[in-house]
Structures are given as C-alpha cells and as structure tokens.
Design a protein that fits this description.
Number of strands: 14
Radius of gyration: 18 Å
Shape: globular
Strand order of the largest sheet: 4-1-9-10-11-12-13-14
Helix content: 25-40%
Order of helices and strands: EEEHEEHEEEHEHEHEHHEEEHHH
Number of helices: 10
Structural class: alpha/beta
Strand content: 15-25%
Distance between the termini: 18 Å
Largest sheet: 8 strands, mixed
C-alpha cells in the first residue's frame, strides 16, 4: 500500500522576491521597491501546497548544509511534508532564487543552483518513488529527472512533468525521454510552445508519444487542457499582488483533484481556484489555502461542489 500520494522531485530554494517599477536596460540600474526572503523552489511549492490541500506529500531536493537547521526545514515539518529523502550537501548552500517582477507583472528570475548541482551524481530515491502513488518532476537536473521518471514509469506510477524555467537545460533527447515518460505534461504557454518547437511536434503529436494530458497555462487568461478534447478553463479574477508560484500551486491543485478521480474540467477549475489564492500575496508559500477555502471559492465561482474524495 502506498504511503504517499504525491512525491515532488526538484528544487527547494530560498526565494528573494523583488518588486520593481520596470526592468533596467543593460549597463544601468533601477530601484527595488520591495524585497522579501521567502520559501520557494518548484518542487517544494508543489509538495507544500499539495499537503495543505490534503495530499500526503514527500519531497526530493538537493539542499545545502545551511538547510537542516533552517526555519524553512522546520516549516516543511510543520506542514507534514515528508523530507527523509532530501539530499544534503554539507559544503554547499541551498539553491537560491532571485525573482523580479515589474509593475506589469512581467518576471525575470536568476537562480543559484548551489547544492542542486549534485543532483546529477545522486542516486535515484527508489524508496521514495516506490512509496508514492504519483511523482511530479519539477525544475531540476534533467538527467536526475529522467532517471527518476524511468523508474517511476517501470513501477506504474502516475507521472507529471514540468521542466519550468530549467527547460533550456534539457537536450532534445532528454526532453523527448521525459515527455515520453510522463502521463501529464504541464507548462505555461511559452514553455509548451518551446517544447513543441524543440521536438518539432505539435501538441497532438506530443500526446501520441507520451502524455495523455497536456496542460497549458496562460496566467490571468486561464488554461487549456489537451486530452481527447480540448478544455478551456478560466482563471478566477483576483487582485494580483505577485504571480510568483501561481503555476506551481495550479499543478498541486490539479494533481489533488486528478488523484481524487475528478474529470479534467474540474481538475483545471480546482487548480485555478488554488492559484487564485497564491497571487493575492507576495511569495509562493505565503497565502496557501486549505481544501475548505478552495472549495468555497470554487463553488462561489462555478456554482457546484467538485465533491473530491
């Protein structure tokens, strides 16, 4: 019997969330309006949000010697995220992201890999994968993700894949391997377009070689789910303070509904309801809703109870 609903593989990071009026031109500077040091990393975001929504989650990330005694580690424990498979590199620092957002909600990110460079030489966490119903491959080292995906596939696990901002690190062969391995492919509209371009395939052709479901998100314009039919899902309008982490929370919400057996339209709507909370505050893990809060917003907006198990 599986002990974990969803295993998230990839980055856990310290996030510096920076607000600017506008991005500077090269060889110039601009003033920072606000800056906060918060919790982040795509895999950790999915694990934390998933746990708050009622999933049993675990996390595989490469972290530095500064992490075991950190407030972030204590927070993960308080959120009941299983962290026994973290890869700790004593002589390195935990990955750190600097995420800059301008007044038009455009973003530029800089990411210091630190301990995450050791993903490539790390062993696949076989025990963590065996214990999970589903495995989410988030941003991280392509070779490590592909190895984890191959094992998960051999064990019949549900696999979702979201290369995110690390998409550029995948060779064509690695990207094709990951796409062939997964059941669900997530990406924003820029990333899905880059994937189709890099593999010289259309969305329907991607589905023929691997994922039965492709989810393409468009921020405040909602999302499209490509399966046997194409489903358009609106975003729930909210006053957006910071879009950082909305995509990861969407993925966690989608997987929460999907693992409950919901139809795909309900999965997308539930995911949009989850993401609508995250954009209301700065940071990726600052305004995480619980299941009941999402249910209320879902029902208010769409007029029915998704009745997830």
């Amino acid at each position: 019997m599986n002990e974990i609903d969803l295993l998230a593989v990839g980055h856990t990071a310290f996030d510096y969330i920076i607000q600017l009026d506008e991005f500077p031109e090269p060889n110039s500077s601009t003033a920072i309006k606000r800056m906060k040091n918060l919790h982040g990393g795509a895999a950790a975001n999915v694990a934390v949000v998933g746990s708050k929504l009622g999933l049993r989650t675990s996390l595989v990330s490469a972290v530095g010697g500064d992490f075991p005694e950190s407030e972030y580690r204590r927070f993960l424990d308080s959120m009941d995220v299983e962290t026994g498979s973290l890869i700790t590199v004593p002589g390195e620092r935990t990955p750190t992201a600097f995420v800059m957002t301008d007044s038009h909600h455009n973003q530029i990110s800089y990411f210091y890999w630190g301990a995450a460079r050791y993903f490539r030489e790390s062993r696949v966490p076989e025990g963590a994968i065996r214990a999970a119903r589903a495995v989410h491959l988030a941003t991280g080292d392509p070779s490590f993700n592909c190895r984890c995906g191959a094992l998960a596939r051999s064990l019949g696990k549900v696999i979702s894949f979201d290369p995110g901002q690390d998409l550029h690190m995948y060779s064509r062969d690695q990207l094709e391997d990951a796409v062939r391995t997964c059941n669900i492919l997530f990406g924003n509209h820029h990333e899905i377009d880059r994937i189709t371009g890099k593999l010289s395939m259309k969305v329907d052709e991607l589905r023929e070689i691997g994922p039965e479901i492709i989810v393409k998100t468009y921020g405040k314009r909602g999302s499209r789910i490509y399966a046997d039919e194409t489903i358009k899902v609106d975003a729930i309008p909210r006053d957006a303070v910071d879009p950082t982490g909305a995509g990861d929370s969407y993925r966690a919400g989608f997987m929460r509904a999907y693992l409950s057996g919901a139809d795909l339209e309900t999965c997308g709507r539930f995911a949009s309801a989850v993401a609508s909370f995250i954009v209301e505050a700065e940071g990726t893990q600052t305004n995480i809703p619980d299941y009941d809060a999402v249910l209320r917003r879902f029902t208010e907006h769409w007029g029915y109870d998704p009745m997830l198990e």
